[in-house]
Write a structure and sequence with these properties.
This protein has about 500 residues and is α+β, with helices and mostly antiparallel strands. It has two domains: about 240 residues, 2-Layer Sandwich (Nucleotidyltransferase, domain 5), CATH 3.30.420; about 210 residues, Nucleotidyltransferase, domain 5 (2-Layer Sandwich), CATH 3.30.420.40. It contains 16 helices and 24 strands. The strands form nine sheets. The protein has a five-stranded mixed β-sheet with strand order 3-2-1-5-15, with helices on both faces. It has a five-stranded mixed β-sheet with strand order 18-19-17-16-22. Strands 4-7 form a two-stranded antiparallel sheet. The termini are far apart.
Amino acid sequence: MAVRTTLGIDIGTSSSKGVLVDGDGVIVATAVRAHDVSRPHSGWVEMDASIWWDEFVDIARELCSAAPEAEVAAVGVSGMGPCVLLADEHDDPVRPAILYGVDTRATAQIERITRELGADEITRVGGSLLTSQSAGPKIAWVAETEPAAWDRARRLFMPASWLARKLTGEYVLDHQSASQSSPLYDIEREAWHAQWWERYAAPLEPPRLGWAGDLAGRVTADAAAETGLAEGTPVTIGTIDAWTEAVSVDAHGSGDLMLMYGTTMFLVATGDETLRTPSMWTTAGAFPGSRNLAGGLSTSGALTAWLKGLTGADYPELLAAAEAAGPGARGLLMLPYFAGERTPIQDPDARGVVAGLTVEHGRGELYRAALEATAFGVRHNVETMRAAGADIRRIVAVGGGTQGQLWLQIVSDVTGLAQQVPETTIGASFGAAYLAAAAIGEAPGSIAAWNPIAATITPHTEHAARYDELYGQYLRLYAGTREVVHELAAAQRLS
């Protein structure tokens, strides 16, 4: 007897993940494909969009083969973002996709467009200042620096919308992703800003807008032949992975903060009001009527992976050594800005700093300092969100990093906040599968029925004083090294 399932696939920074989920929220099968980004120059982070579709096809075929009794009733898509993938009229990419805020190439365009439109007007219309997270300046960068590619460009895609296009033939983008395409989107009108689109994005055709859980269309005959999915299967519009992760753990209600532990760290606070602050990102939510104040660290899991490769140790060894190092890492303090930083400092020229290092320190202290550095970054973001008016009453953790108890505990100890950890933390692919089930009326009213809270991490109050002291030093360390670090970043761009 066939088991009705939904397929959720997410295209992430370091891997693509897929799940088949039945009507009770039970994961029937999973699949992963690892990949790498390209860094052709300092500050550039790109990816060949063919990876997105090829891995979708591989994962879909693997999952369907692993569970031949499963009938895929609907497909949910998700992906990192906001990205800029420009394609011609035949949907052939004109260049590799430019990734989200970790790509910092468009600094000159950010400055120029801000001068032309005015910071206050950009914030009034779009909700946020232009930063390395904004898609608009990256589109302008292509127009100004790669005229041959720009002459061919006709459409704008992000990973989820690219998958929807390949599956259904529909050209559509969700409101949440659009709201991170500043200055091209009007957040209060929930529509493209026609005048600014014409000024900075012509001759691109604006994609039709919808919400993450809306249906983009149905699987075409050509896509069915490639993927093994049945022709006519419904496909959702989808959205950016962090927002799909929030859906996966039921952390998209007013007062919720989703904390995503991944290659980068992402925070999404949800409310009913459009909050504006220069150091965070104001966006539309995944669902109609919701608004978010969001932030992100440019490195978190990427930093721990870097240390793993540098030391040659495996994660269990590093975690054991880090736990033995104790709070404060025996006098080490790190700034985690190894790829610049997004929020709240919005400094693409920030760089990593390790202070207090001696020949007596080892890999355990370095790994502990890296975990604590990301925790200080989370605290900085949470305090900035609250200062802007965010009402944060509940924190839910999600992502691959939640498998490590020590990292979770350090974040709670540094912030003084409890974190709820759900039963399933696989992330955006699970949320995408839920949205697909909801779109065809086959999901419970809340994903909490699929994914209940399994544990709560509470702060160790005995560490509060030490971490308060270190957090103050963390803020001072950035201020004290910023000028020198910016000079080094300028030299790196010339190398």
